[in-house]
Amino acid sequence: MAGRPVDHEHRAALLDAAVDHAVEHVFSELSWRSVAAALGVSTTTLVHHFGTKEQMLEAILGRLRERLVAASRELAGEGADLATTARAFWAWSSDDHRRPTFRLFFAVYGRAVQSPETYTGFLEQLGADWIAILREAQGPDVDAAVATRRATVVVATLRGLLLDLLATGDRARVDAAAEEFLAGL
């Protein structure tokens, strides 16, 4: 006897709410009970829609990635160059309103580095997405290998600056360093 089918609209709404909850809480402390309580559903509902806790966490990370990539693509804009796109990325990601999102991002990133076999998709996709956007911002006339190297430097530098900002809260120093880097692009 088959179970009831998953309502994909309801699952998507639950997933969005679970991501919002994860952004506001410590990722390592997410449990069936904490997520169910925050969403106002039973743990059985979460099991029905996501399967295992690991599958739920994977879905949360996937949706977080989708949100970050969608925002990044929107920021890149039509015809924006590398410097303009990188500056837009920095302004958006370093905004104080996004601090919880990037705290979650770096919490997962740290876990992924420690357990790459568990977070393979997260590690491969997020960096690749941002590099692709920045590579495209350099235009079709730039050699692909050169564009990839430049995009990698931008992603790694902005990621490092963002981590520094989150860790220290020293906005003036980190913004000055970001401006120094961005001006060189």
UniProtKB/TrEMBL annotation:
InterPro entries associated with the record: Homeodomain-like_sf, HTH-type_TetR-like_transc_reg, HTH_TetR
Keyword terms of this UniProt record: DNA-binding, Transcription, Transcription regulation
UniProt DNA-binding region: 31-50
Keyword 4Fe-4S part of the UniProt annotation: no
Residues annotated as domain HTH tetR-type: 8-68
Superkingdom of source: Bacteria
Protein name (Swiss-Prot/TrEMBL): TetR/AcrR family transcriptional regulator
Organism: Actinomycetospora aeridis
Source lineage: Bacteria, Bacillati, Actinomycetota, Actinomycetes, Pseudonocardiales
